[in-house]
Amino acid sequence: MRDVIEIETKRLKLRPVVMSDAPRIARFCDDPGVGRMLAMTPLPYLEAAAEGWIMTLNARAPLERDFVFAAELEGEGLIGCVGAHKSEQGDVEIGYWLGRPYWGRGLGSEAVGAFVAEANALGALNAGHFVDNPASGRLLEKVGFAYTGETRRMFSLGRGESVDCLRMRYANSDREAACADSAANAA
Question: What is the pTM of this model?
Answer without folding.
Answer: 0.89
